[in-house]
């Protein structure tokens, strides 16, 4: 889902703290819709940050809401109450900030009549009073195009998807096929890779799930949308093997036997616990296809 947050007085504090915060009730003890929208936020939702007449960046939500007191660092005149809604968020600045007039011209047709974040009175465009607004996919897509964002930083919900959590490239108009942004559920991808490899490192057979990494064979940045989601383009690796594999310092042949880059001495591999006799069992034809592409880079090192 996509949201718009007005942070005129609190942007600096919320950005530095890595969160969004809103009160639960107003002075009259009433709940208001734009604060209650905090309860809708879920990990990987995108929130556009509006401040002093500009969209200045976007945030990726990293938690569901929880109750927290008003942050002490808020330098505001109004004390809203003891508790409020808080979510953790990762902030990203835009290189191309977007002013409210340009925004309104581009997204006005995609904004709701009720509970819109922007309002135009005469020739003046201003943000409506309120904190958090839900916006449509079409409005979000228009903002992304205005900001000329080529990549959205969308983390895996577990933090354990190798490289694929680095970036998500916004599709061009042709590949979009009417969709606004097709965001990959990377947590779901990791679960599928875990199942494919029976919850064990494909090389060491370690079953310490907390450290295992779903590593793309053909890197995320080089893969098609279909390849990014293909479970056969994934290996489940423990951290050492993942780091070496991601940097093309090891690869595997069609029989699953490990291949070592000549750029590292054997003694160094041994220090890392890699003896050159490792192998992966049960490779599929699709695994072999992706590994062939991976090996092509290994031999060039």
Structure description:
With 301 residues, the chain is of the alpha+beta class. It is elongated, with a radius of gyration of 23 Å. The protein has 2 domains: 2-149, ph1033 like domains (ph1033 like fold, Roll); 184-298, no CATH class. 26% of the residues lie in helices and 26% in strands. The protein has 10 helices and 16 strands.
List keywords for this structure.
7-stranded mixed sheet; single chain; 3-stranded mixed sheet; 10 helices; alpha+beta; elongated; 26% helix; 301 residues; ph1033 like fold
Task: Show the helix and strand layout.
Blueprint: E1 2-6, H1 11-17, E2 19-23, H2 33-36, E3 46-51, E4 54-61, E5 66-69, E6 83-99, H3 100-107, E7 118-121, E8 124-127, E9 132-135, H4 137-147, E10 151-152, E11 161-162, E12 168-169, H5 173-176, H6 186-196, E13 213-216, H7 225-229, E14 234-237, H8 239-246, E15 250-252, E16 258-260, H9 266-271, H10 285-298
Parallel strand pairs: 1-3, 11-13
Antiparallel strand pairs: 1-9, 2-6, 3-4, 4-6, 5-6, 7-8, 10-12, 13-14, 15-16
């Amino acid at each position: 889902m996509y949201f718009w947050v007005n942070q005129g007085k609190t942007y600096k504090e919320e950005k530095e703290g890595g969160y969004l915060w809103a009160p639960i009730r107003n002075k009259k003890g009433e709940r208001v819709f734009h604060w209650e929208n905090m309860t809708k936020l879920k990990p990987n939702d995108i929130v556009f940050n509006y401040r002093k007449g500009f969209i200045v960046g976007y945030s990726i939500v990293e938690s569901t809401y929880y109750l927290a007191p008003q942050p002490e660092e808020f330098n505001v005149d109004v004390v809203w109450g003891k508790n409020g809604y808080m979510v953790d968020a990762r902030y990203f600045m835009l290189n191309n900030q977007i002013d409210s007039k340009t925004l309104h011209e581009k997204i006005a047709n995609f904004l709701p009549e009720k509970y819109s974040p922007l309002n135009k009175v005469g020739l003046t465009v201003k943000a409506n009073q309120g904190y958090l607004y839900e916006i449509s996919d079409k409005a979000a897509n228009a903002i992304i195009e205005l900001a000329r964002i080529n990549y959205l930083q969308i983390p895996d919900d577990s933090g354990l998807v190798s490289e694929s959590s680095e970036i998500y490239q916004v599709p061009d108009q042709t590949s979009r096929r009417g969709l606004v942004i097709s965001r990959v559920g990377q947590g779901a991808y990791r679960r599928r890779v875990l199942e494919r490899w029976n919850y064990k490192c494909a090389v060491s057979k370690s079953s310490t799930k907390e450290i295992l990494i779903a590593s793309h064979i053909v890197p995320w940045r080089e893969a098609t949308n279909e390849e990014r989601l293909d479970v056969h383009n994934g290996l489940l690796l423990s951290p050492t093997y993942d780091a070496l594999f991601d940097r093309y310092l090891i690869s595997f042949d069609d029989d699953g036997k490990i291949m070592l880059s000549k750029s590292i001495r054997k003694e160094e591999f041994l220090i890392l616990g890699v003896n050159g006799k490792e192998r992966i069992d049960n490779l599929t034809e699709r695994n072999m296809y992706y590994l062939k592409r991976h090996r092509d880079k290994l031999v060039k090192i």
